[in-house]
Design a protein that fits this description.
By secondary structure, the chain is α/β, with parallel strands linked by helices. The protein has two domains: 148 residues, no CATH class; 142 residues, Rossmann fold (3-Layer(aba) Sandwich), CATH 3.40.50. It contains twelve helices and eleven strands. It has a five-stranded parallel β-sheet with strand order 7-6-8-9-11. Strands 1-2-3-5 form a four-stranded mixed β-sheet. A two-stranded antiparallel sheet has the order 4-10. Helix 1 crosses helix 5. The radius of gyration is 21 Å and the shape is elongated.
């Protein structure tokens, strides 16, 4: 089983543990220098991104659930922990903030640092930071051109929520689909299929992205591939700003009940130029998240804004 298309968890955790071994004073002394990097980028773009993730503009209270940075629990050593600590290292340990790890998407009573939030409705209290990025922010280089791929839609994943069950039962044996659940323990149903890695999935023209508890895990690598991303209109968003994705521009939008799936598969199989245009737009969208220095800067500015609006001195 090849892992060349997946981020290395070993490297991720090794880097996280290494950062924990470096005295906090080293990072705090680097903050001003890090923030000066903003001069190297488009100021309006940086501001737009920061304000997208943290929508509040007025003073707020962090609430009773807030903790100090030095009290952030290390006991689980989770990916969420290491991702948040990567940026908290640059700020004084006494600063307080509210946070929530995991896939839950409800809106808290006070501004809270989270991985994902609903796109619709009043979501300002969900402050986005790039959490669990080793799993989600996986961009790949596709060795296959769109035209040499199979005219088939591919998807593999856990099927535990009803909307996924409805889809997989309707299309697991469709001639234009190679889709299946990979549930554990294995279920004795015809739509239970074996694991299929990214490399094999890339041999298909169409990649389905299906939201689970929050966003579709495969969305980032699918949009960086030379395949066409197909999905329902997103209901949740993360650091990837799924709420700004445009149907027909960055991806092919499917009806919530997938009633138009066959029609759209046939259409884009026959209209290669239109498919290639969407794929090119998807690549351009993905590119904005591939400048590590700029992404780090934006994350630091989000935290800086959070602490300033909560009237805490950094």
């Amino acid at each position: 089983m090849s892992n060349k298309y997946n981020n290395s968890k070993l490297t991720f955790y090794a880097n996280g543990i290494l950062r924990e071994c470096i005295p906090g004073a080293y990072y705090r002394n680097q903050l001003a220098k890090k923030l000066q990097k903003a001069d190297d980028y488009d100021a309006s773009y940086i501001t737009q991104r920061v304000n997208y993730y943290l929508k509040h503009e007025n003073v707020f209270d962090v609430g009773s659930k807030a903790v100090r940075a030095n009290d952030l629990s290390y006991k689980h050593k989770s990916a969420y922990y290491f991702d948040l600590r990567e940026y908290l290292h640059y700020f004084p340990e006494h600063l307080k903030f509210a946070y929530r790890f995991g896939d839950k998407t409800h809106i808290e009573a006070n501004p809270t640092i989270v991985k994902a939030r609903p796109i619709a409705g009043e979501n300002a209290n969900s402050v986005l930071i790039n959490l669990d990025k080793c799993r989600h922010f996986n961009f790949i280089t596709d060795p296959y051109s769109f035209t040499e791929k199979k005219d088939i839609l591919v998807w593999r994943g856990g099927v535990y929520r009803q909307h996924r069950k409805d889809f997989i039962q309707a299309f697991y044996n469709h001639p234009m689909c190679d889709v299946g659940q990979t549930n554990k323990p294995v279920e004795d149903v015809p739509w239970q299929k074996g694991y299929m890695g990214i490399e094999e999935q890339l041999q298909h023209k169409f990649i389905l992205c299906v939201e689970g508890n929050d966003v579709a895990t495969n969305l980032k690598w699918a949009m960086s591939s030379n395949s066409l991303c197909m999905m329902n209109k997103p209901k949740f968003e993360t650091w990837f700003m799924e709420g700004t994705l445009k149907a027909g521009v960055h991806y092919v939008e499917l009806a919530d009940d997938y009633s138009d799936l066959e029609e759209k598969l046939q259409y884009y199989a026959e209209h290669t130029d239109e498919a290639l245009k969407i794929i090119d737009n998807a690549h351009k969208y993905v590119a904005q998240f591939q400048d590590k220095e700029r992404e780090d800067l934006i994350a630091l500015l989000v935290l800086k804004k959070y602490f300033e609006l909560s009237q805490q001195s950094i």
